[in-house]
Specification:
3 domains
């Protein structure tokens, strides 16, 4: 009897030892190849048995029973964290376990929106409407003039235009137009806070004048190496208290602009953004300036430029001139090429 008992004991040890080796040694190293990225949600309160079954159904493991017993023997299911997980390429069972214990989840993007450099938030109206963030232009205008938000951020302006940093923003939960604007304003101050205070103080500009100035630069040219030149032209005109003559500002102040500047627009004194009849900077920013444009305000070129006009070669570059005579020559070239 003793011999039979010891034989059974040895057999059991071999089976258990072999099982341990298989589960703890070989099995965890087996990887499942995924043809595409697989998303999986671990619901709060789901049992280990159900999780194992769900993982097999999702094609993330080969055998739910082996996964179940492995977790029971060598892991702690109470440490698994609920949430959305994403798996790609080759994954092993231990990869899944480690990921779920670490809570290495991902968030599904509900929607995203891009605010380009040099464009006003108004020009993003269609995008915002398609996302059901606004229903009409009046709603967007009210959001941009949110007095509470202006007060909270201590923005010395009547509009949040210019303070919404140009970038792509992703949102992971239902959001309002106020949420979107706040996210853009947060990004603006994140990138500028305590970075330009000394330069701003030396420039003699208020923060709002600085942002407005930079928005004019960004709206006037798409060529970054022209930013300092446009900045110089604006500075020179401001110092001489001359009209800025910036059509991008004029257009911003035209309600329901249809794509062409009329003579009546050029003479309209009611348009406070009409820099052909009102001297100085416009009352608010007209676009979202980049850091390059904001920095160009403090670092203008020093060539004596007072004028600029678009080149005729479709490059979107400009001719910069020191004298009216030279400027008029380039203007005539532009008019001639457009006929």
């Amino acid at each position: 009897m003793k011999k039979i008992f010891f034989a059974l004991l040895i057999t059991a040890a071999i089976i258990i030892g072999g099982g341990y080796y298989f589960l703890h040694g070989v099995w965890p190293l087996q990887a499942t190849s995924l043809a595409q990225t697989t998303k999986f949600k671990l619901e709060k309160g789901v049992s280990l048995k159900n999780l194992s079954s769900q993982l097999e159904t999702a094609g993330l493991i080969d055998n739910q029973h082996l996964f179940y017993y492995y977790v029971r023997m060598f892991s702690d299911y109470s440490k698994f964290q609920a949430g959305n997980y994403q798996f790609k390429n080759q994954i092993s069972n231990t990869d899944i376990i480690k990921k779920m214990i670490a809570g290495d989840t991902f968030q599904e993007v509900l929607f995203e929106i891009n605010f380009p450099e040099g464009q006003s938030i108004r020009r993003s109206f269609s995008k915002l409407k398609n996302l059901n963030l606004v229903q009409n232009k009046e709603q967007l205008e009210l959001a941009l003039k949110d007095k509470n938000m202006l007060k909270d951020y201590k923005i010395p302006s009547t509009s949040l235009e210019g303070y919404i940093y140009p970038a792509t923003y992703r949102f992971y939960k239902p959001s309002t137009i106020q949420d979107v604007i706040k996210t853009g304003v947060d990004e603006f101050f994140k990138r500028t806070k305590n970075k330009y205070q000394n330069q701003l103080k030396k420039s003699g500009l208020s923060m709002n004048e600085w942002v407005v100035f930079a928005s004019l630069i960004e709206a006037e040219t798409q060529i970054k190496n022209e930013y300092p030149k446009v900045a110089e032209v604006i500075w020179n005109r401001l110092k001489k208290k001359d009209f800025l003559g910036i059509d991008a500002a004029l257009i911003y102040g035209i309600k329901d602009y249809q794509g062409d500047i009329k003579w009546s627009h050029l003479k309209d004194k009611k348009n406070l953004y009409n820099s052909r009849v009102h001297k100085g900077l416009p009352p608010t920013a007209i676009a979202s300036p980049s850091l390059d444009a904001l920095e160009a305000v403090f670092n203008p070129s020093n060539q004596g430029y007072y004028f600029y006009v678009t080149k005729t070669d479709q490059s979107k570059e400009h001719h910069f001139s020191k004298t009216l005579k030279e400027h008029n020559r380039w203007v005539r070239e532009l008019v001639k090429s457009s006929k």
